[in-house]
Amino acid sequence: MSFSISQVGDRATITAPQYLVGSNKEKLKQLTLDAMERDAKHFVVDLASASYIDSAALGTLVALSNRIHEKSGTIRLVNLSPDIRSLFHLTRLETCFDDFDGDPSAA
Asked: Which of 47, 70, 78, 85 has its CA 20 to 30 A from that of 16?
């Protein structure tokens, strides 16, 4: 499985694959930037299928968060496994996101 994205107006939902790693971080970045070109401002990254995130992909998520915030947008991470939630808490990176592990259907 690879990343998928759906966009309605200025809201985009990105569904992540099982592994977020250096080899697919560019795909995540390009999908997000393309959506921004199509006027997306509010992003949800659904991590329901994700079981592993390496440091390269983690850095990409943080960089995208910064870029989205620069454009007055929002980014939320939802459906995190306990291990991935723990990774974000241990690294204190959950503070980079507007809503960490919130309701994926919330606006």
From this structure: 70
